[in-house]
Amino acid sequence: MAADGALSAPAAQEPALALALEPPEGDADAAVTRVYLAALQHPDPSRSLLVAQGMRSDVVDRCLGVLQERGLVRLHGGGVVEVVPPDISLPTLALTYERRARETRSAAHELAQVFFQARSASTAPDPGSIRILNSLDEVAAVTADAIAAGQEIVRTFRAPSPRTAAIFASPLHSHEEPSRGAGGRVLDMTSVYDSRILEAPDVLTILEARERGGERSRFTTGVPFSCVIVDDAAAVVDVSAFEETGSGSALVRSRPLVLALIALADHLWDLGSPLRRPGAGAAAEQRDQLILSLLAAGAPDATIARQTGVSQRTVERRVRALMDQLGAATRFQAGVQAARRGLL
Predict the structure, then answer these.
(1) Helix 57-69 with 27-40: angle, nearest 10 deg
(2) Contact at 8 Å (CB) between 297 and 290?
(3) Distance of CA 41 to the CA centre of its chain
(4) In terms of domains, do 267 and 170 share one?
(5) What is the pLDDT of residues 228-239, one digit of tens each?
(6) Over the Cα atoms of the chain, what is R_g?
(7) Same domain flag for 65 and 184
(8) Domain containing 152: what range?
(9) CATH code at position 79
(10) Bridge partners (DSSP) listed for residue 227
(11) Does 223 share its domain with 317?
C-alpha cells in the first residue's frame, strides 16, 4: 500500500475441544481428543473401558499419556483413569499455552540479534546481498522501489518506531491505495502490528483505510523490529525503534536471510489476532465487541479506554464482566472465547 512505500453434544463439541486441548496436528491430535471425550462421558473411566469401545490399546495408552502430561487426567493402578474437572484443567492448560507464546515472542528479539550478528561476521559477504541504510528517507525510498518490483505478496511486521509513526501520519487517502508491483499489479498485503501501535492517534480510522486498500492485519505483542518483505526477493529491515534516525537499517537481498525473515513474519502472523470492527447493534453492544476485539489483540486497559471513549475504570469493569460472562480466566481467553462463539 502506498503509505508503506513512501514516508508520507459430545460429538458436536469435538472441534471446540480439539482447539482447547492443542492446535490441531492431524489424526494424532484427533485421537487424543476422542479418548478425552470418551473418558469425560463415563463416571468411572478406565483403560479397559476405552479399549472395549473399539480403540486400539496402543493408541489408548499413548493418548492417556498425553492427557496426563497436559494435566487433563490422572492415571492410577489397575488402569483407572481420573478425569480432572475441565473447569480446572482447561484454564490451567490455556495458561500454559499462553506462557509458551509469550516465551516465543520474547525470544524473537534475541534470536534475531544472534541471526544478524552471525551473518555480519562473515569474512566474505556478498556486497550486493545486504545494503546498509543511513536514514528514514533512505528506508522509505528503497521500500518503495522494492514494492514497485513486486510480483505477488508483501509481508510486513511493525514495531512502534519513528518509521511506523511516519507511515501512520501519512494522509488518509494514501492508506486507501493498494500496494502495486511490477506493471501496476495489485499485490497481496499482510501486516502484523505490535499491540502498542493501538495507542497511536486515530489508529482505528487509519487501519480501516488500510483495510480498504487491501491490507489484512493482525496484532500481537513483542514485535521486536519492523520489516517489509517483498515476495522472496527482498526485505527492508527497519531498526528505527532502536536508532531513531533509521541508520543501521538494511535492504536485504540474500535469499537465505529473506526466507528467514519470511519465516519470522509468518510466525508472528500465526500468533496474532485480527482486530474486528463492531457490527450493527446497540451502542453498548458495539462497545463490548470493540473491547473484546482489542483484548484479543493484546491492548491494555488504558489503550482500550482511549479507543472506546470511556474511562479506564469503566473498561476495567466491563472487561471483568465480559470475562465472567465468557467463563474466561484471563483477558486473552476472553478474546479467544468471543471469537470462537462468533461474537467478534
Answers:
(1) 80
(2) no
(3) 34
(4) yes
(5) 999 999 999 999
(6) 24
(7) no
(8) 128-271
(9) 1.10.10.10
(10) 157, 237
(11) no
In this structure, the answer to whether residues 153 and 262 fall within a common structural domain is yes
Residues 212 and 298 in one domain: no
Report the 10 Å Cβ neighbour count for 303. Answer: 21
Q: Which residue has the cell 485421537?
A: 31
Q: Which single residue is written with the C-alpha cell 545494503?
A: 131
Question: 193 pairs with which residues across the strands?
Answer: 158, 219
Q: DSSP letter string over 2-44?
A: HHHHS---HHHHHHHHHHHHSS-BTHHHHHHHHHHHHHHT-SS
Verify that 312 and 262 share a domain, yes or no: no
The tens digit of pLDDT for each residue in 140-199 reads 999 999 999 999 999 999 999 999 999 999 999 999 999 999 888 999 999 999 888 888
DSSP category for residue 288: H
Tell me, what CATH number does 166's domain have? 3.30.870.10
Burial (Cβ within 10 Å: 0-12, 13-18, ≥19) of residue 315: buried
Q: How many residues does the chain have?
A: 344
Which ranges of 22-135 would DSSP assign to H, the alpha helix? 27-40, 47-52, 57-69, 86-120
Count of Cβ atoms closer than 10 Å to residue 185 Cβ: 12
Tell me the C-alpha distance between 331 and 79, whole Å: 38
In this structure, the answer to whether residues 287 and 254 fall within a common structural domain is no
Phi, psi of 108 (to 5 degrees): -60, -45
pLDDT digits (tens, 9 = 90+) for 304-328: 777 777 788 887 788 787 777 777 7
Q: 216, 250, 271: which is the final residue of a domain?
A: 271
Global confidence as pTM? 0.54
Residue-by-residue DSSP string for 128-150 = TTEEEE-SHHHHHHHHHHHHHT-
CB 167 within 8 A of CB 159: no
Query: Which residues lie below 8 Å from residue 127, measured CB to CB, with a gap of 6+?
Result: none
Query: 302 and 260 in one domain?
Result: no
Q: Which three three-digit cell numbers place residue 94?
A: 490455556
3-state secondary structure of 46: strand
Whether the CB-CB separation of 135 and 245 falls below 8 Å is answered with yes
Strand partners, 235: 229, 252
